[in-house]
Write a structure and sequence with these properties.
About 30% of the residues lie in helices and about 15% in strands. It has about 250 residues and is of the alpha/beta class. It folds into two domains: about 35 residues, no CATH class; about 200 residues, Rossmann fold. Strand 7, helix 8 and strand 8 form a beta-alpha-beta unit.
Length: about 250
């Protein structure tokens, strides 16, 4: 009868652990670690790995958001990755409700890939996420409604005054120059809602910024993780896909 897998070791990793058991001479080697679900890259300064937000959970989240200041409300995604949260927000809310969707991330290659994909969609037929068939009308929406409201920046979330690099902005689509460098301080001041989908270690670094934002009357939306230092919140979803909406201080 074959030996049972060791407790806590996935079956796909059993073989690599057994080779140390059967070959004691190999114990001098570094035992390979079980792969993490996330791919950490702390060496490059990333405060949290990128993980896409499930679209169904995002749809549910947007259903519980109220943009109550016409012509002013905007969404800021801290650690936006490929920008899909922003795109889905812009597809969900018309300009009368959401005038601006902005993302900042430290992973420049990921941002540039997102930009290229978004801009490419202007000249080709792509799948409409709300339909089972392809349509060119969706491309017109990208061109006329989404791009004028979308902004992506590369930079450090923890540095309020460092100039951010523009990846895609409305001014770029109009072929005009940007008046002055954008900073985290300006973005936070201008937004009404802040979205975060980061690990607890990363969220802890952003607590001062998030607390200040709540004091300024902004909402904080946290996917999956509670932020203990923040109060006045509502919880939605289940244990696997939970999110928190933090309300401004009264």
């Amino acid at each position: 009868m074959p030996a049972e897998p060791q407790q806590g070791i996935a079956p796909e990793h059993e073989e690599e652990y057994d080779r140390y058991k059967d070959n004691p001479d190999l114990l001098g080697e570094e035992i390979p670690k079980v792969k993490r679900f996330f791919s950490f890259d702390w060496a490059n300064g990333f405060i949290s790995p990128f993980r896409p937000t499930p679209q169904d959970v995002l749809s549910n989240l947007f259903g519980n958001i109220k943009f109550s200041t016409p012509g002013k409300d905007s969404l800021l995604d801290l650690g936006c990755g490929d920008g899909l949260v922003l795109l889905q927000a812009l597809q969900t809310f018309p300009q009368s409700q959401l005038v601006r969707a902005v993302g900042v991330d430290l992973d420049r290659p990921l941002l540039e890939a997102a930009r290229d994909k978004i801009l490419q969609s202007k000249s080709m037929t792509i799948e409409d996420p709300d339909s089972s068939h392809s349509t060119s009308n969706y491309n017109d929406t990208i061109e006329s409604d989404i791009l004028p409201r979308l902004e992506l920046y590369h930079g450090d979330l923890l540095d309020k005054d460092e100039a951010l690099s523009s990846i895609i902005t409305p001014s770029m689509t109009r072929e005009t120059a940007i008046d002055k460098p954008m900073t985290m301080r300006r973005l936070v001041q201008d937004c009404s809602h802040i979205f975060v989908y980061l690990l607890p270690e990363a969220l802890s670094k952003l607590v001062p910024l998030l607390l200040e934002s709540l004091e300024q009357g902004k909402f904080v939306l946290s996917m999956q993780w509670e932020i203990p230092e923040l109060k006045r919140y509502q919880t939605y979803g289940d244990a696997d896909q939970r999110y928190y909406i933090y309300s401004p201080k009264a």
